Structures are given as structure tokens and as C-alpha cells.
Amino acid sequence: xxxxxxxxxxxxxxxxxxxxxxxxxxxxxxxxxxxxxxxxxxxxxxxxxxxxxxxxxxxxxxxxxxxxxxxxxxxxxxxxxxxxxxxxxxxxxxxxxxxxxxxxxxxxxxxxxxxxxxxxxxxxxxxxxxxxxxxxxxxxxxxxxxxxxxxxxxxxxxxxxxxxxxxxxxxxxxxxxxxxxxxxxxxxxxxxxxxxxxxxxxxxxxxxxxxxxxxxxxxxxxxxxxxxxxxxxxxxxxxxxxxxxxxxxxxxxxxxxxxxxxxxxxxxxxxxxxxxxxxxxxxxxxxxxxxxxxxxxxxxxxxxx
Length: 305
Ligand code: KMH
Ligand code: ZN
Description:
The protein has 12 helices and 14 strands. By secondary structure, it is an alpha/beta fold. The strands form 4 sheets. The chain has an 8-stranded parallel beta barrel with strand order 2-3-6-7-8-9-10-11, surrounded by 8 helices. The chain has a two-stranded parallel sheet with strand order 1-14.
């Protein structure tokens, strides 16, 4: 009987504090959110770092503080981002891997436009001066993931025993994964996160989810997979994943709602909702140790924090 891995993407680098009062910012807030998401049924947390004003940061002391806040509270698998934000260099983004040697880290498998600006048009008052320029700058930025950086990130993860979670935003990224498997840079079974509904990536429809999944099945011999989707598509796309045999990612990184027009007051609200749907479909959700076994992770005793 398969068990569904629920990932909670706790804070991300997409949303700004002015969009919701519930976005965790400090290491303590992120640690507490990890604990609440775990108690609600998450086995994995996907973690970005933010500075005290909520601006995405690659600062290793902040990542270390977050890691320790999570580890002292609960046994979840910690998946650190190497996606960071478009304001960071590739070197800044990947530095968390050798520093903290996590069990899991995101590895983005293609460059896309990753446009945040339209969200800014809906914000009436900004709490911080950095927010509007941050969102607006996305129309001139490319979320750059070249073959050189993908290979560097993959090698860095291999050297540190970190399993890459391969972020796929469009169908061509599956070709890239196949290329790096054939090159021996990525080892099967790979772990793919299909990301739908980013402005600049594949639209969040069930047809596209099926298209991605079927393309991966043709191109890649063996893989585990999960789905996350932006905004109102989060729960419908995750429900599609459950029906197709996939795992799911929810969290305030991807959506700040728990239902139409209602803010999620915590990542746990979204975890509870997708867990209920999974169980209504007769599925059980995985505990952290079960997720480690399914994904072949090295164990929480074997990290750098
Ligand atoms: N914030 C996005 C630019 C990841 O964590 O690897 C990249 C992102 C994906 O969130
Ligand atoms: Zn992320």
C-alpha cells in the first residue's frame, strides 16, 4: 500500500510579507511552522530563508538558525532550496548544500521567466520598501538554471549526500533530466517535483499534469514524483496527483489560501486539507521515516546541523 508524502513549503521567496500576515519570516517562526505542519501530517518541509524584513536571503547563518529551530522541534525531512530567488547568484543559491549537508535540496532543471509582478498590483500598502521593486524586477529577470549550473548543483549534492528534488516547470525540463541521467550526473530513481501554474511556466491544468507525467514515464525509466501548484490551483492539482499515484506539496510558498478567499493561518491548514482529501481517497500519508525510506534519504543523523 503506497503512502503519500506530504511536503510543506513553509515560506518560499515568491510571496512578500504584505500579501499575508501568516507568512513565517524569522527562524523561530519557520521552526514553529515546520512543527505545526509535521503535526498536521507533513513528512517533508521545503525551506527558504528570509532576513528580518522578510526579504529572501542566502545567508548561511540564517539557514543554520532555521535548520536548528526545525530539528529541535520535529523529525521532518528538511529540503533546502537551491532556487533561492532571482536576486541571488548560482553560487549563493547552492552554498547551503555543503554548509548544512541536508537530506534533500531542490534542483531546478531549467531556466524560465518567473514573473511575480502582477501580484504586486493587488497590494494596496507595502510594509517594506524592498517589496514592490522585488516583485516588479521579475519582469526583467530570468530564473537562470543553465546546464552548467544544473551539473554543478547536482555534483555538489552528490558530494554531500544530498538527494536532489528536481523542480520541473515545463515539459522541456524533462528532456534535461533525461540528458543528465544518460550523462551519469543524475541517478535513477530520480525525484521530480512538477511545478504548475507559475507565470512563465506550464499552466496548472489536469491535462498538463497528465502530459508532464506521461512524458516523464516515456523519457525516464524510474522516478518518484510530487506535484505543487500556485495559488488556487494548489489543492486541485495536488488532488490530481493523488489520483495518479503521486505525492503532494502544499504550503505558503505556493499559495496563501486554504479555500477561496480564506487565508491559510498556517502551512498546517493546507497540510490538513490535502491529508483529508488523501484519506477520503483511501490513501495513507507517510511519516518522515517512511518518506526517507521511499526516497532513499541518508537520515537525519547524517546532516550538517
Ligand atoms: N523562488 C523561486 C524563484 C526552489 O525553491 O528551488 C524558486 C523556487 C524553487 O522557489
Ligand atoms: Zn522554493
